[in-house]
Amino acid sequence: MAYYETTQDYINHHLTNARMCSTDEGIVFNKACEDVGFWVWHIDTIGWSAFIGISFLFLFWRVGKKATTGVPTKTQAFVEMVVEFVDDSVKSSFHGSSKLIAPLALTIFVWVLLMNLTDLLPVDLFPWIAGMIGQYGFGMDPKDVYMKIVPTTDINTTFALSIGVFILIIFYSLKIKGIKGFTKELTMQPLNHWAFIPFNFVIETVTLLARPLSLSLRLFGNLYASELIFILIATIGYLQLPLHFAWSVFHILVLPLQAFIFMMLTIVYLSLACEEH
Amino acid sequence: MNFNATLIGQLIAFTVFVAFCMKYVWPPIIAAIEERQKKIADGLAASERAEKDLELAQSSVTDKLREAKDEASKIIDQAKRRASQIIDDETQRGHTERENIIAQGYAEIEAEKNRVKEDLRKQVAVLAISGAQKILAREIDAQAHSDIVEKLVAEL
């Protein structure tokens, strides 16, 4: 709170991503990017999510490379537990055969879970470290150094995930049902009569589009709200300590649940896409 | 709620992660898990088989044991029979031997008796002759009467 004149400044600062963009003056950061429009990169979101994803994949890759079919090491047992959990979830909901679904579900579950878990880190810690580095390393005003570490509180991340899933839904729909079957599904349901084709089309399109939208907005909404509450709690002085504790404990439940829901719905949507009528 | 190029960056990262996971992470881990599951299933099946084998072996052991006992008792019976036979035979042989020895003894005794008798007879004859000589010395010539003495000796 030290640098900020008002609580609003503090909250705004903590809810703003570190931005980077390329203008006529070269590569610039943060406030200079405000009028650039689309081509702005949230470097904290990209950096943290890439770091988390690469760490998780590296760990799993190393375990997979050294995997023994005999007595496993503790790390291997842990990794296998996660993999089996995802595999069971996939097998219980997805009845087609696909080499993509299970690794996709694993990547989504673990990546989203780890990105969510960064929400439990103290809200001031990384902005403060970044501010120090900016102030003493580059002579910047610490108020102009932004660092929002939870990638899933950035709507770009959640939409990137759901758009990826959406592309796969379309791909599998076309692959399994063919263009004809997919068109038929969009126009001949729920009322199977030629006169209702426009009506059906509108309804089915909305259904189709609602899936990725709800997927990403659910995750974003939950995480953004929880981050916001963490920041609000951080503004109320010493009383924040028990409140932080309570809110963190609650989020030990919420954060894995959100990751699980995202994975489970992905599997369900893809299994619906693969189902023949 | 500001969409920007981050979306593209995250989409690329997501695609790369999923592709990497699909190619290098998932297959070895799931292969290891399935291999181990197969091993465990095989192990369980083997242990079940071993249990059945053990049961079979136990019943065959019981059979063998019973057979062995039968055989042993048969052998013991045979041995007893043979032993009693041997004892009978030996007893028989002993009896025969004894009788033989006794018979031999008798024969020897008989022979000795005969010999002694002969000796006695001869000595008696000599005594008789010498007695007769003494009696007849005065009146009979030994030469003239020896045929009578001889006859006498033969009668003894």
UniProtKB/TrEMBL annotation, chain A:
It is a multi-pass membrane protein. It comes from the Bacteria. Keywords: ATP synthesis, Cell membrane, CF(0), Hydrogen ion transport, Hydrolase, Ion transport, Membrane, Transmembrane, Transmembrane helix, Transport. CDD domains: ATP-synt_Fo_a_6. InterPro entries: ATP_syn_F0_a_bact/chloroplast, ATP_synth_F0_asu, ATP_synth_F0_asu_AS, F0_ATP_A_sf. One of its GO terms (cellular component) is proton-transporting ATP synthase complex. GO terms for molecular function: hydrolase activity; proton-transporting ATP synthase activity, rotational mechanism. The chain crosses the membrane at residues 39-61, 100-118, 155-174, 219-239, 245-272. It is found in: Cell membrane; Membrane. One of its GO terms (biological process) is proton motive force-driven plasma membrane ATP synthesis. Key component of the proton channel; it plays a direct role in the translocation of protons across the membrane. This is ATP synthase subunit a. It comes from Brumicola pallidula DSM 14239 = ACAM 615.
From TrEMBL, chain B:
GO terms for cellular component: endomembrane system; plasma membrane; proton-transporting ATP synthase complex. It is a single-pass membrane protein. The keyword Lipid biosynthesis does not apply. Keywords: ATP synthesis, Cell membrane, CF(0), Hydrogen ion transport, Hydrolase, Ion transport, Membrane, Transmembrane, Transmembrane helix, Transport. It is found in: Cell membrane; Endomembrane system. One of its GO terms (molecular function) is proton-transporting ATPase activity, rotational mechanism. Its main location: membrane. Belongs to the ATPase B chain family. Component of the F(0) channel, it forms part of the peripheral stalk, linking F(1) to F(0). The b'-subunit is a diverged and duplicated form of b found in plants and photosynthetic bacteria. PANTHER family: ATP SYNTHASE SUBUNIT B, ATP SYNTHASE SUBUNIT B', CHLOROPLASTIC. This is ATP synthase subunit b. The gene is atpF.
